[in-house]
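Lab notebook, design round three. We kept the backbone fixed and only want residue identities now. Task for the bench partner: fill in a sequence for the structure below.
Input structure tokens:
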């Protein structure tokens, strides 16, 4: 049997040398090293070997198995080194079509909103998303005991240089920063993410986008505010857009109003709040060193998601953040 094992080794190695591809390599492995291969078939024959030859025969079988496995690994490495990388490509054939990316529907909406207000003379600006209490509350006439400061309604982050910081709850913080640095006349538009621990539903999300407008000058009135908002609505949605203003309350504006727009939610047309607006409160102007006896102004904040929902007929705000390509590819 020892002589037979030598013949088997020579035959196996000759067959392995002739293999020239991965398919043939796998066929060789199954034929020689597999569970039903040549080596496995030799094992039952050990019982017929004379007792004094069994140790040498068993040792030779193990050595043969190791030799064939080592030869197999070496041949596999050799073939991998010369194998072509990737599929063969016929450069004369037309190329494969590739998918085209597109900007997210919210990014496009923000750009379009900014463009409309830019035509009305508003200059775009931005501010930080992590704010201190002065810019997010105090300067906006929200006193320390106001329920809007409750931790349950905010994402507080900790203390920085003795002051608590939080993820901003509104883009109104940008108007404070602008008025701190610049003197009237001012006419700015700011957009960005804001954060509130709201329960997620068809019209609410804990992270959303706002567009903040501010105009401060001599002689600014509520008529100017209404004109700006109605002009925006009809320029953005068309002359048939249904918009209304109803009395509201905000600590940083007086008088204040809610801005509503008719939109379809779950198949029914209903009034949905787009944001708030009003005349800048005198205390806000004083907090940034502007004399309310000489200057007046208006401010408004609009929800970008709800504007996108109205424009594109999206019934559920949550779809904008699901990252479902089937939904996003529609826009």
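Proposed sequence:
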């Amino acid at each position: 049997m020892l002589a037979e094992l030598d013949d088997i080794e020579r035959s196996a190695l000759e067959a392995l040398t002739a293999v020239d591809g991965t398919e043939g390599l796998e066929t060789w492995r199954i034929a020689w090293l597999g569970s039903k291969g040549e080596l496995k078939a030799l094992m039952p024959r050990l019982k017929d070997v004379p007792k004094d030859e069994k140790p040498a025969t068993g040792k030779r079988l193990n050595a043969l198995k190791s030799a064939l496995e080592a030869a197999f690994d070496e041949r596999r490495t050799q073939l991998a080194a010369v194998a072509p990388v990737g599929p063969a490509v016929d450069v004369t054939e037309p190329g494969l079509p590739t998918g085209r990316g597109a900007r997210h529907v919210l990014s496009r909406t923000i750009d379009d909103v900014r463009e409309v207000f830019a035509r009305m003379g508003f200059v775009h600006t931005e501010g930080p998303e992590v704010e201190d209490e002065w810019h997010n509350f105090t300067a906006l006439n929200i006193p320390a005991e106001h329920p809007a400061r409750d931790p349950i309604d905010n994402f507080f982050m900790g203390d920085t240089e003795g002051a608590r910081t939080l993820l901003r709850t509104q883009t109104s913080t940008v108007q404070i920063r602008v008025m701190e640095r610049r003197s009237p006349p001012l006419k700015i538009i700011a957009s960005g993410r804001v954060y509130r621990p709201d329960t997620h539903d068809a019209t609410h999300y804990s992270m959303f986008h706002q567009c903040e407008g501010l105009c401060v000058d001599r002689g600014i009135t509520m008529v100017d505010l209404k004109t700006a908002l109605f002009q925006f609505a009809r320029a953005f949605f068309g002359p048939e857009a249904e918009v209304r203003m109803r009395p509201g309350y905000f600590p940083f504006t007086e008088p204040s109003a809610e801005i509503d727009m008719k939109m379809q939610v779950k198949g029914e047309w209903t009034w949905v709040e787009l944001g708030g607006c009003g005349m800048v409160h005198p205390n806000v102007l004083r907090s940034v060193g502007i004399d309310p006896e000489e200057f007046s102004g208006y401010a408004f904040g609009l929800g970008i998601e709800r504007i996108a929902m109205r424009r594109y007929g999206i019934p559920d705000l949550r779809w904008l953040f699901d990252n479902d390509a089937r939904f996003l590819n529609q826009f």
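Keep this in mind before ordering anything: The chain has two domains: 2-82, 105-328.
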